[in-house]
Amino acid sequence: AKDARLYWVQTTISPFMDDGGKPAMYVAISSDIxxxxxNEIELLRHRDHLEExxxxxxxxxxxxxVDIKRALTELERQKFMINQHAVVSMTDIAGRIYYANxxxxxxxxxxxxxxxxxxxxxxxxxxxxxxxxxxxxxxxxRGEVWHADVCNRAxxxxxxxxxxxxxxxMGEDGKPS
Length: 177
Hints:
Elements: E1 9-17, E2 23-32, H1 34-85, E3 89-91, E4 97-100, H2 102-108, H3 112-115, H4 132-141, E5 146-153, E6 159-166
Antiparallel strand pairs: 1-2, 3-4, 5-6
């Protein structure tokens, strides 16, 4: 047949009994359930497609987590290498130290508890001309890198020089954070 389509029907067959309790005839009632079956099949296809998409997204997230862990491990390795070589400190926007590595304490003679949340003025030697640090603040406020040799004073009073590089973290608003 040209128009051969698949149809689904649901049929209920009920016997009619004679006076002796034997089936005398059967009545079959059928309903066309084709549209319901087509919808069920379509729903199953969509479910399977959604499950595939969820599996793919789950796989993508797992790969991203692996990549993030790898990147964090690499950053930790780089941080370790930098900390072995350089004095590192970080400040908030007001200039208060919120992080410094062990090398900072070793070179300056100040233990962590004495410089944490203090301004870098704690190590200021007073040796630089008046505009020296003003130029630094103006440079980093523009998001640029500042580089200079800086003379600091250790806790015991001796002077020491650092080849210093100051960078700034910029916030989403484009201003130093």
